[in-house]
Amino acid sequence: MDPKDVKGLIEVIRRDEQSKKYVDSILSYILPDNWGVTGVVRNFRYWLNENALESRTKNWTMMGFMSELEAQDMRIKYDLYTEKYVCTGIARVTSNAINREIELGNPLLKNIQKATDVSRTVNDTAHTATKIITNDGKSFVLDYHQTLNTDNPLIFNTLEDWMNARNGQTAEEYFIDNLVKFNYKELLDQIRYNTQQLKINII
């Protein structure tokens, strides 16, 4: 997994308005990203709201304020609203944003073949995130739901790590760990570019 590719992917999601709308949350300023529980907290809030809505609509139907059909319609609309903000919706919108930029030929994604959603169940808890497949067939995972921060998703170096909920680190931690490697590659690319330009000038 090349740090430059990871940086490019994060930049693409940061620029995508739909991704920012469904990912970014004020909760990410309250809870540390490396705890990986921010999405769970937001889900819990939705669950409380859903239960409150269920209770209210039942009472309103019993009192004759609305029909059962109207109550059901309200609950369906709320489910449709929240599904965009839970892990499945976030994985879908971020995958779509990445694939759209690949089709447009975005140079930041030149080594990325495609993105898709991937699901797992660990300790009876189902979860979905964004799987990245590189041109050489390798896979890694970006998990935006666990941080709700487009600048700082959890990164899993391999699909196996993500499937087993292990070895995840925030983008900040990942880039610190790969700082020397990243700077070296940047320098090497610049040297190669300068050498190429020198050859062109000589010719």
Give the key terms.
203 residues, alpha+beta, five-stranded antiparallel sheet, elongated, 5 strands, disordered C terminus
How does this model look, in words?
It is a single chain. This protein has 203 residues and is an alpha+beta fold. It has one domain. The protein has helices at 3-15, 17-23, 27-30, 38-62, 68-82, 87-103, 159-163, 171-177, 179-202, and strands at 112-122, 125-134, 139-143, 154-156, 169-170. A 5-stranded antiparallel sheet has the order 1-2-3-4-5.
In summary, what is this structure?
This protein is α+β, with helices and mostly antiparallel strands and 203 residues long. The protein has helices at residues 3-15, 17-23, 27-30, 38-62, 68-82, 87-103, 159-163, 171-177, 179-202, and strands at residues 112-122, 125-134, 139-143, 154-156, 169-170.
Number of helices: 9
Low-confidence stretches: 198-203
- Total number of β-strand segments? 5
Residue share in β-strands? 15-25%
Gyration radius over CA: 21 Å
Mean pLDDT across all residues, rounded? 84
Strand order in space, largest sheet: 1-2-3-4-5
Oligomer: single chain
First and last CA, distance: 36 Å
Give the SSE string: HHHHHHEEEEHEHH
Query: Outline, from the CA principal axes?
Result: elongated
How would you classify the helix and strand content by structural class?
Answer: alpha+beta
Give the count of structural domains.
1
Largest sheet, in brief, is: 5 strands, antiparallel
What fraction, in percent, of the residue positions are helical?
55-70%
